[in-house]
Design goal:
The complex is a heterodimer. Chain A has 9 helices and no strands. Chain A is mostly helical. The radius of gyration of chain A is 17 Å and the shape is globular. Chain B has 4 domains: 48 residues; 96 residues, Phosphorylase Kinase, domain 1, CATH 3.30.200; 181 residues, Orthogonal Bundle (Transferase(Phosphotransferase), domain 1); 140 residues, Four Helix Bundle (Hemerythrin (Met), subunit A) (Up-down Bundle). In chain B, 52% of the residues lie in helices and 10% in strands. Chain B contains 17 helices and 9 strands.
Chain lengths: 176, 496
């Protein structure tokens, strides 16, 4: 593990560092994704960077940074989905067949704001699990990558992810 | 709500059993944990774990990438392939549109930058590309010409004719268009549709946002065949980005068969055309509703307010044509855009003047009064000539009574209902009314002639009254009806 190094994105050199970190983070999923996807990943990284650069957060270490970056990506995606009236579409969706309906990208997009709210509730109960979901789902890290970012074993991460996923699934299914 | 110690306990138990194969987990749990609430929570989570499928298992970005792509913004001066971007001129569910220069040819183009195709397999992607290319081959003054469809830096880029003008959407709700303008819009749009349909290309997303009015006042349809490129992913009814103040995006102009995933053909475009023309003419959407769901329900089952009530000045034939486009079942609409063109051309397209209705009312009222006069005259003749004209009196009086009822009903319908309903009554009762009036007219004519030798003045008056009925029905009434409703349409409708 690298030595914790404080950095602040205000100075140019550090801004470049933030940018590179984000790119590497994005590269984690860029490698695995099919052709034609690079541009979106880059766009997301750009925007995440712009949001980060506008804050006064001093990053304690790499993990702290990855966490904040993941949060930033989550916010960007959820904001975009909200801007497209996702909540309304979500309200109209048949939740009984949640897993089937999520096969459609449009449904998944509609789900984002509701997922964001549920994730905020999960955060109250278990911040670690919420972070795992952010890394796996919003950033797209693999089990191993996420485990490394969280400093826990892959097996532990897998089990915590499973519980967080089950909990969120129940929340989103609504009622029952 | 769980306390944090309870939550930790739930988590520990969950993590111990989640990887075990099913079976006696329940008993094991009960032995480990005395608190039934915690056991229940673990069990519930385990159940949801097994049914959650692929939920959250894969990173979201790859699948909702159009969330990001739609917002890829190019600044003035940016270069995309051979195109130099000048400014953004619009945006929609499919992406942003820029005014750009094609540097190879030095001409201005409207450059539409689309989200990458999200179709899952290569064959599907190729099919979409092919259809888009077919649409690009269209060449018609009423269709925005597509110059090129290219894939640049993973994005689909469409270079099209740059049209200096504004979208039809901007006219809706402003000044009410004249009947002439509505007729022209109908003619131009249906001609453009016919040209595309003739080449087997349907639009599938016709709406006021997709129609441009050029500086010279003509209409051009945008985005022919490109609806296919939009990532719908089965969520057909999902509203896309909408411009502020506009009704929700695409679903508002979808046909019932599009909403129900039925087979789609050229008649789908005719439905959307009907909705667009209706909205252009009246300023209101025929199926306007508060939510997309309510709107879809109205498209599927609701009846729009009759166009003739909102715009009584529109040519009757145009109203008939537009309302036929709005039929729920494709088979009740026109078979093709070409048939719709014929229907528009075959009818009387003069605006209906509002003055005519007064004359028509006067005529019907006068005739009503004269029925009494006719009956009275027949009675008079019967009194003077016992026996001989008994039968004639009965016939004339009965006809007059019957005619009175018919015309009274027409007046009532005209007062209470809309013109379309009156037209229906006119068509249905037309032959009967002619029969009634002819009977009275001829009856009085015979009686008048009969009476003349004995009482010349009365005889001539009665005969003249009879003659009036014949002339009024055959000559005057068509005129007043024409002025009020457009009689040629009545005649044609009567033929059917």
């Amino acid at each position: 593990m690298a030595e914790p190094r404080p950095f602040h994105p205000d100075s140019d050199a550090q801004a470049a560092a933030v940018y590179n970190e984000l790119r590497q983070l994005a590269a984690a999923y860029m490698r695995r994704e099919r052709q034609g996807f690079t541009l979106q990943a880059t766009a997301l990284v750009h925007e995440a960077y712009i949001r980060l650069a506008g804050t006064d957060i001093v990053f304690k270490d790499r993990h702290h940074f990855v966490g904040i970056a993941a949060r930033s990506m989550r916010q960007i995606l959820v904001d975009r989905a909200r801007a497209r009236n996702a909540q309304k579409r979500w309200a109209q969706l048949d939740k009984v067949s949640l897993t089937e309906s999520l096969v459609h990208a449009a449904a998944e997009e509609a789900m984002l704001p509701a997922l964001d709210e549920a994730l905020t509730r999960l955060e109250q109960l278990d911040p670690e699990q919420a972070r795992i979901i952010e890394l796996r789902y919003f950033v797209g890290l693999s089990v191993e990558e996420a485990a490394a970012a969280m400093n826990i074993s892959a097996a532990t991460l897998k089990r915590r992810f499973a519980m967080a996923r089950a909990w969120l699934f129940r929340e989103l299914k609504g009622g029952a | 709500m769980m306390t944090s110690s309870q939550w930790r306990r739930v988590r520990d138990l969950f993590e111990q059993v989640v990887d075990l194969p099913g079976g006696d987990v329940q008993d094991w749990l009960a032995r480990q944990e005395p608190d039934p609430a915690i056991v229940a929570e673990v069990r519930s989570l385990l159940e949801h774990h097994t049914v959650a499928g692929d939920f959250l298992n894969e990173g979201v970005i790859g699948r909702v990438s159009d969330l990001l792509a739609a917002d890829t913004v190019f600044e003035a001066g940016a270069v995309l392939g051979d195109y130099e971007i000048h400014k953004e001129v619009g945006r929609g569910g499919m992406g942003r549109v820029y005014l750009a220069t094609d540097r190879r040819l030095g001409r201005s183009v409207a450059l539409k930058v689309l989200a990458p195709l999200l179709a899952r397999n290569a064959a599907e992607r190729d099919r979409l590309r092919q259809e888009a290319r077919a649409a690009a081959s269209l060449n018609h003054p009423g269709i925005c010409t597509i110059y090129a469809i290219e894939e640049i830096e993973d994005q689909i880029v469409i270079a099209a004719e740059y049209i200096d003008g504004h979208r039809l959407r901007e006219e809706i709700g402003g000044t009410t268009p004249s009947p002439r303008e509505v007729v022209d819009a109908a003619r131009e749009l249906v001609a453009a549709l016919a040209a595309a349909h003739a080449r087997g290309i349907t639009h599938r997303d016709l709406k006021p946002e997709n129609v441009m009015r050029t500086k010279t006042g003509h209409l051009k349809i945008l985005d022919f065949g490109l609806a296919l490129l939009e990532p719908r992913d089965g969520m057909a009814a999902a509203p896309r980005i909408t411009t502020p103040g506009a009704l929700v995006g695409t679903p508002a102009y979808m046909s019932p068969e599009q909403l129900t995933n039925g087979p789609i053909d050229v008649r789908t475009d005719l439905f959307s055309l009907g909705v667009t023309l209706y909205e252009f003419a009246t300023g209101v959407h025929p199926f306007a509703a508060d939510s997309p769901m309510a709107l879809a329900a109205r498209i599927l089952e609701g009846k729009p307010q009759p166009l003739s009530t909102l715009r009584p000045d529109l040519p009757r034939q145009l109203v008939v044509v537009i309302e036929r486009c709005l039929q729920k079942k494709p088979e009740d609409r026109f078979v093709s855009a070409a048939e719709m063109i014929l229907a528009i051309a075959s009818g009387d397209l003069r605006p209906v003047s509002q003055g005519g209705i007064g004359w028509w009312r006067t005529h019907v009222r006068a005739t009503l009064g004269l029925y009494f006069a006719a009956a009275a005259a027949a009675w008079l003749v019967r009194e003077s000539f016992h026996g001989a004209s008994e039968l004639l009196f009965v016939v004339v009086a009965l006809a007059a009574a019957f005619g009175g009822v018919l015309r009274g009903h027409l007046l009532f319908t005209e007062r209470v209902h809309d013109r379309a309903r009156v037209l229906g009554e006119l068509v249905r009762g037309g032959t009967l009314l002619t029969l009634v009036d002819m009977t009275i007219g001829l009856g009085l004519l015979v009686e008048g002639l009969w009476l003349t030798p004995a009482r010349p003045l009365t005889g001539v008056l009665v005969a003249a009254l009879g003659l009036w009925f014949v002339v009024a029905r055959l000559r005057i009434e068509p005129g007043t009806t024409d002025a009020a409703f457009g009689a040629k349409i009545v005649a044609r409708a009567g033929d059917r």
